[in-house]
Amino acid sequence: MEETYNFTEYNCITNNKPLYVGYSVVLIVELILALPLNISVLYMFIFKLRFWKAKSNMVFLFNLMLADFVLLICLPVKIYHFQQGERCSKNDTECKVMLFMLFLNRAASIAFLTVICIDRYISVVHPRKRNILQVLKQSPKISFLIWFLLLPLTVPTMLRTFECGATYSPDKDDKIDELREIIFFTQIFIPFFILVFCTACIVKRLQRKSVGDRGKLRRAVFAVTSVVVVFSICFLPRAASRIAVLIIWHQDHSITQEIAAQVYDGIMCFSHIDCLLDPLIYCFCSSKFKNTYLSTIFPYFQKKVKDSEES
């Protein structure tokens, strides 16, 4: 007869409370730094740049910022539970809502990073394909469509109670779990290959361009490279650690599973720095945003940047 466990209690309560208190400190630092930064960015987009009247990439950048605010809403709850020595709430409803929000943040961030990169790729590598560019100019509609499509893709996170933190399930043959993992890895690896492809094509275009506006191509290279760097830092380690968690889970070693879950939770905390790194993408992708932000918040640095560009 197989031994049974109370999986909810086992997975929600950590055996290493000091470690999770340390994780909570990391999240507190991220929240303290990210909240005022993103509020200032929100102010820029709405009151200074009026993003809805700007070019397509500005609308996509605004939606990327909205995805970061979804994460910022979740951080205080995660901080509270980590300080209590819990990976997540033992309340089933609260746990599912939190997982839904976190999955939505990840999916939306990846989607808009990818669209931003594709937009820059088309404008640089295929500038004569006006039909595609015309479609991308309908960026508010595209943004709404992305959010609309992400909701059903995020629903599998709420269909059953998961293991807290690592969100894998004790039922190894469950089809819902398999669907969730397929969606999880598909949403990371396919966009990553698209980002790398777009970056390689833009770099190749820059190398072939002997005359003309090489400055525009360099800015495009910086923009897509920044997207790839942020993506690699925030999402690829999460995917790698999740693969390790799933492999270890199928080996049925409870101590190893606990360690793997703790490492996974730590990487998750680190990956939340995307809400701090995304403003760098705004600056690389939009010189108008960079100049407006610096002239409003840091006028001294804006003058320094302008002098360096002129020199």
Tell me what you see in this structure:
With 311 residues, the protein is mainly alpha-helical. The protein has a single domain (11-302), classed as Rhopdopsin 7-helix transmembrane proteins (Up-down Bundle), CATH 1.20.1070. The protein contains 13 helices and no strands. It has helices at residues 7-12, 17-48, 56-83, 92-125, 130-136, 139-154, 175-208, 214-234, 236-249, 254-271, 274-285, 287-297, 299-310. Helix 12 (287-297) crosses helix 13 (299-310).
Which features would summarize this protein structure in a list?
311 residues; mainly alpha; Rhopdopsin 7-helix transmembrane proteins; globular; GPCR_Rhodpsn; transducer; GPCR_Rhodpsn_7TM; G-protein coupled receptor
Question: Layout of helices and strands, plus pairs?
Answer:
Elements: H1 7-12, H2 17-48, H3 56-83, H4 92-125, H5 130-136, H6 139-154, H7 175-208, H8 214-234, H9 236-249, H10 254-271, H11 274-285, H12 287-297, H13 299-310
Helix pairs in contact: 2-3, 2-10, 2-12, 3-4, 3-11, 4-6, 4-7, 4-8, 7-8, 8-11, 9-10, 11-12, 12-13
Short description:
One of its GO terms (cellular component) is membrane. With 311 residues, this protein is mostly helical. It is 79% helix and 0% strand.
Q: Any low-confidence stretches, pLDDT <50, length ≥5?
A: 1-10, 161-170
- Average pLDDT score: 82
Count of helix runs = 13
Number of domains: 1
The share of residues in helices is over 70%
Q: What proportion of the residues form beta strands (DSSP E)?
A: under 5%
What is the β-strand count?
A: 0
Bulk shape: globular
> How many strands, which pairing sense, and closed or not: the largest β-sheet?
none
As a whole number of angstroms, the C-alpha radius of gyration is: 21 Å
CATH architecture: Up-down Bundle
Class based on secondary structure composition and strand pairing: mainly alpha
Order of helices and strands: HHHHHHHHHHHHH
What's the CATH topology label?
Rhopdopsin 7-helix transmembrane proteins
CATH class placement: Mainly Alpha
Distance between the amino and carboxyl termini: 77 Å
Q: CATH superfamily membership, which one?
A: Rhodopsin 7-helix transmembrane proteins
Subcellular location: Membrane
Domain G-protein coupled receptors family 1 profile: 37-282
GO molecular function, one term: G protein-coupled receptor activity
Organism: Paramormyrops kingsleyae
